[in-house]
């Protein structure tokens, strides 16, 4: 006894020192971010205060202040009042000590509110020195990654346990300490030495010592240059903003981040642990809550708005369940996002992933069944795979779950069978309420028969608040505006174009034929004089001059071909696509990657059904929608492919509309559909008395518009030919003129 104890204490002291170093290195990296953030945050607060009119002080003081003379003196904003201070305020006629004190107190209250609420947005196109310092400071933590964070957390735990043990084992550190110690002290010392030995052996056996040492190395390694940090920010901006929100403490409103769930559900979710050992990505607060919701409630529908990272939340759930010992998982998704799912799982987790699609899918399925992992398949392929036995699959994930809202469809029946056999099911969609509450009810039925049966007409009549409360145990939705304060601005413009005579002629022919789809694309059928096509050229040209990338969406392949021919004869801006449903999923992803990789301007042509789902188009900052869509959620999905978490530039959306015809009628009729979705699928205190009162089916909508347009043109013909009547062809010619 002696040397062995001294060696154990020495090993423990070295481990403690290493843990303390990692904690210190992480703390300094965090403080560097806070120091870089402060001047930027102060500047944003000052701009906010300089924009608040001094009259707002009346609101804070319940109208007790008289501010006319203050405004006349040149102090027109809350910021100018704070800058003036008490002495300058007392020089204003009619302002005494008491009034000045009240004004400053009210101004400080607004200032404190601004400090709590404003967020710093990193402007990638204006990299000034202060912003660059923040990006560089954040880069250290982002580059170190989740492994460093886990290592620092483990280091803190070890430090807390080792500190008291080392203090108690101090007599064993010297040659004569134990010899001079009394029996009780000696026993305590030897117990502490045993504890140190056990702890150090465990750390060395599991490789945690190396992880802690590597964390220090990673936290001390800065970027090779400022430019390298900015490039990394553009690629991984979501991770930068996630860290920034965590360090600054300016998280989104808690109720919004938790989807405004009832307290009893939210409390249960908060108490759910989340194991991250197989996950390679940090989660934002609302994302961690979403993963916990899926784990705590077991069978759920995650209805987050597009761009909030539902895929990452699903991966977090998979990683947690894998850490608990689950071995088999299944993901069902559209073919267009099959590649994206496999990439995301490989990049963001340590889980094994297998594609169960294509001619070899049955062999792949047998391999997955034998070895486990995450199987990724399509709705169509799932129909040919045998349903699992009870308890065989740890989690079924269904992406773009609105695709299985029709209970009569075979794909819906296949998914429902799998959901019935799986104890845990996660349905994901940003658009669960495209048309009717009844369709949303079918998705709920896959998860909880009781809740689905309870969603009768009475809930719809009671309004959206009652509806949301009814589905709270299985439904979670958050909106971008509530949880992503750093998103660049989204500017959506309805661009009304006056049809040319040629456009009118093509439109009239489509109406007389009663062809609704031809009416919708008539504006492009005579491209030499197309008003919409000319506007697309202008938008693309302007975007190219500003170095921006553009995505052009249309429902129709022939419209995309016309746009392709028109832009192909333009200024040489690289042109990609068109992406249509006939392009294989792997090729589709490659086209998007090539589009994103081009330095400077480029144009991607895409069928809105094919590229509006699953693909990430955040390289684009200009979006053109060639015609209004029958389903408003189709446009929303398409826009969200560009304006999503990770976007670093403002996004401009141009929706091209022709006056006087089908576009006008569609916009007016579909406004009601959008209100229905907002009331029932988003958070809202207002709802229509019943969804059927504002909804029409797509077929009924098309029939109604055709009939109304035929009647309108007939009336126009009569008005133009009265009092003498001319032949139908002559009337059309007059109208076109």
From TrEMBL:
Write out the entry's keywords from A to Z. ATP-binding, Helicase, Hydrolase, Nucleotide-binding
Where does the Helicase ATP-binding domain lie? 291-450
Q: Which InterPro entries match?
A: Helicase_ATP-bd (IPR014001), Helicase_C-like (IPR001650), P-loop_NTPase (IPR027417), SNF2-like_sf (IPR038718), SNF2/RAD54-like_C (IPR049730), SNF2_N (IPR000330)
Residues in Helicase C-terminal domain copies = 535-724
Gene3D superfamilies associated with the record: P-loop containing nucleotide triphosphate hydrolases, Tandem AAA-ATPase domain
Q: Where is this region: Disordered?
A: 712-737
Record flagged with keyword Nucleotide-binding: yes
Q: Report the superkingdom from the record.
A: Bacteria
UniProt GO MF annotations: ATP binding; helicase activity; hydrolase activity
SUPFAM superfamilies assigned: P-loop containing nucleoside triphosphate hydrolases
PANTHER family, sorted: SNF2/RAD54 HELICASE FAMILY (PTHR10799)
The protein's name is Superfamily II DNA or RNA helicase, SNF2 family
Protein species of origin: Actinacidiphila yanglinensis
């Amino acid at each position: 006894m002696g040397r062995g104890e001294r060696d154990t204490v020495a090993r423990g002291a070295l481990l403690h020192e290493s843990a303390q170093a990692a904690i210190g290195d992480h703390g300094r990296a965090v403080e560097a971010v806070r120091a870089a953030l402060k001047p930027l945050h102060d500047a944003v607060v000052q701009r906010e205060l300089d924009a608040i009119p001094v009259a707002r002080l009346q609101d804070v003081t319940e109208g007790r202040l008289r501010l006319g003379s203050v405004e006349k003196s040149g102090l027109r904003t809350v910021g100018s009042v704070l800058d003036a201070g008490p002495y300058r305020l007392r020089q204003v006629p009619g302002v005494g000590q008491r009034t000045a004190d009240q004004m400053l107190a009210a101004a400080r209250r607004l200032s404190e509110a601004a400090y709590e609420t404003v967020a710093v947005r990193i402007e990638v196109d204006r990299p000034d020195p202060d912003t660059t310092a923040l990006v560089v400071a954040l880069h250290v933590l982002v580059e170190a990654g989740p492994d460093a964070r886990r290592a620092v957390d483990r280091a803190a735990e070890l430090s807390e346990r080792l500190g008291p043990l080392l203090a108690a084992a101090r007599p064993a550190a010297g040659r004569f300490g134990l010899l001079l110690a009394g029996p009780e002290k000696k026993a305590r010392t030897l117990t502490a030495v045993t504890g140190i030995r056990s702890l150090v052996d465990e750390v060395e056996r599991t490789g945690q010592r190396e992880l802690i040492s590597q964390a220090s190395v990673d936290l001390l390694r800065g970027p090779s240059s400022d430019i390298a940090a900015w490039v990394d920010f553009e690629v991984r901006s979501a991770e930068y903003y996630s860290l920034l929100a965590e360090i600054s403490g300016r998280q989104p409103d808690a109720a919004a981040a938790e989807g405004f769930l009832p307290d009893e559900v939210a409390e249960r979710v908060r108490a759910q642990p989340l194991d991250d050992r197989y996950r390679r990505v940090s989660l934002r607060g609302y994302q961690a809550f979403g993963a916990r919701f899926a784990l705590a409630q077991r069978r759920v529908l995650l209805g987050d708005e597009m761009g909030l990272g539902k895929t990452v939340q699903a991966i977090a759930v998979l990683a947690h369940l894998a850490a608990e010992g689950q071995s088999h998982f299944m993901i069902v998704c559209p073919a267009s996002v099959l590649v994206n799912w496999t990439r995301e799982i490989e990049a963001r987790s340590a889980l094994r992933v297998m594609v169960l699609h294509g001619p070899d899918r049955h062999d792949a399925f047998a391999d997955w069944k034998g070895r486990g992992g995450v199987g990724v398949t399509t709705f169509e392929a799932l129909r040919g795979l045998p349903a699992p036995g009870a308890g065989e699959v740890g989690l079924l994930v269904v992406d773009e779950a609105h695709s299985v809202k029709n209970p009569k469809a075979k794909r819906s029946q296949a998914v429902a069978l799998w959901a019935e056999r799986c104890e845990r099911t996660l349905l994901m969609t940003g658009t669960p309420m495209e048309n009717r509450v009844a369709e949303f009810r079918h998705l709920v039925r896959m998860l909880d028969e009781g809740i689905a049966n309870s969603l009768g007409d009475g809930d719809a009549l009671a309004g959206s608040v009652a509806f949301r409360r009814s589905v709270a145990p299985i439904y979670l939705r958050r909106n971008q505006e509530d949880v992503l304060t750093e998103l660049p601005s989204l500017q959506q413009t309805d661009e009304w174009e006056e049809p040319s005579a040629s456009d009118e002629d093509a439109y009239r022919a489509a109406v007389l034929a009663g062809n609704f789809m031809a009416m919708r694309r008539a504006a492009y059928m005579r491209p030499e004089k197309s008003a919409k096509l000319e506007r697309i050229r202008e938008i693309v040209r302007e975007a190219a001059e500003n170095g921006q990338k553009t995505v052009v969406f249309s429902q129709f392949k022939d419209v995309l071909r016309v746009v392709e021919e028109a832009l192909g004869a333009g200024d040489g801006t690289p042109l990609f696509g068109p992406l249509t449903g006939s392009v294989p999923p792997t090729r589709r992803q490659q086209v998007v990657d090539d589009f994103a990789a081009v330095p400077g301007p480029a144009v991607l042509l895409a069928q809105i059904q094919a590229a509006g789902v699953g693909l990430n188009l955040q390289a684009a900052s200009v979006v053109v929608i060639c015609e209004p869509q029958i389903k408003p959620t189709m446009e929303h999905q398409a826009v969200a492919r560009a304006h999503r978490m990770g976007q670093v530039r403002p996004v401009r959306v141009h929706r091209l509309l022709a006056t006087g015809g089908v576009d006008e009628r569609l916009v007016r009729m579909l406004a009601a559909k959008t209100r229905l979705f907002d009331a029932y699928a988003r958070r809202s205190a207002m709802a229509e008395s019943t969804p059927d009162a504002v909804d029409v089916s797509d077929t009924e909508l098309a029939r109604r518009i055709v009939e109304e347009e035929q009647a309108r043109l007939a009336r126009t013909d009569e008005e133009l030919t009265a009092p003498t009547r001319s032949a139908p062809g002559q009337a059309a010619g007059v109208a076109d003129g």
